[in-house]
Amino acid sequence: MINYSINIILGSLFLLAFYAKVISIKDFNLEIIDYKVVPRRLAPIAAVCVLSLELGLFFSFTLSKYYFLSNAVAICLLSIFTIFTYLKKQSKKDSSLKTCTCFGNVKLLNKYPIQRNLLLITVIIVNYSFFSTVQIKIQTKLVVMLSILLIFLIFICIYLVNKKRTTNIVIDFLANQKLNKGLAIFLDYKSDSFSEIDSILSINKQDSIVVFLSGPAWLVKGKEKKWNTRVVLVDSDFISEDFISIIKGKSIQTYNNVSLYLKYN
Predict the structure, then answer these.
(1) Domain ranges of the chain
(2) Which of 11, 89, 104, 178 can pair with 20 through a Cys bridge, CB separation 3.0 to 4.6 Å?
(3) What angle do CA 207, 212, 217 make, to 5 degrees?
(4) Would the pTM of this model clear 0.90, i.e. be above it?
(5) Cα–Cα distance between 63 and 31 in angstroms, integer?
(6) Taking the CA of residue 222 as centre, how many other CA atoms within 13 Å lie in the half-sphere pointing to its CB?
(7) How much of the chain, in percent, has pLDDT values that exceed 90?
(8) Which residues of 126-149 are buried (b: 16+ CB within 10 A; e: fewer)?
(9) Per-residue confidence (pLDDT) for residue 236, from 0 to 100
(10) Is the confidence at residue 125, as pLDDT, over 80?
(11) What's domain 166-264's architecture?
C-alpha cells in the first residue's frame, strides 16, 4: 500500500507540473528557449513533448501501468531538468536560480529545484526497489485517478475565472491610462527579478514601453531617467507579481516572466 500511495503522490506532482506549465505555456516556451538546448523555432515542440511526458506519467503512476517504464522515464526527465538547471546556474552565476517555475504559484515546491529533483529521483528509486506492489482493483485506481483529475479541473476553472477578472481589471486600468498599444510592464521593486529586469531595461531602451512600478516615489523618478521611458507609480496592492502585457486595442496578452520576454522579444 505504501508503494501505491507514493505512486499517487508522484503522479499528482507530475500533473501539478503539467497544469502549471499549461496555464502559462508562453512563459514555458521562453524558459525552454533560455536553456539554449533546442533551436528557438523548436521550443513549442519541446514544450509539447515535456507536457505529454508529464501527463503520461500521471496516468502511469496513478494506474500503476508500465511500472518499470514510467519510473525510468520519470528518472530520466528529472535528471535532464536537473542537469539543464545546473548548467544554466553555472553559466549565469545567478542566485535567482534557487527557485524555478515548474509548479506555478506553489512556491514551496519551486524552491531549490536541483535538490528537489534529486529528492524525487531518490524517492522513485527507493519506492521501486524496496516497497512491494500491492494488487489493487482497476476500479479503485480509476476512481482515485478521476478524483484527482476532478480536483485539478476545479482548480483550472477557478484559475480561468480569476484570470478573466484580472485581465478585465488590467484592461480597464490601461484604458484609464489611455494606452491602446505597446508594452505595459508591471513591476514590484521588491520582487526577486527586479534587478535583472532593471539591467535589461537600462540597456534595451524602448519608447513603446510603459512601466508601472510599485515602490518609493524617488525610485520611480530615478528609474524613469535611467530607463528613458515612462514610469508610473502604482499602489503595491495592485501588483501581486511582476507581469508584462502586450496591448492590442481592447485585448492584451500577458507574460509572467518579464525578464525572459524582454530578453527574447
Answers:
(1) 1-136, 166-264
(2) 104
(3) 110
(4) no
(5) 31
(6) 7
(7) 32
(8) ebbeeeeeeeeeeeebeebbeebe
(9) 74
(10) yes
(11) 3-Layer(aba) Sandwich (3.40)
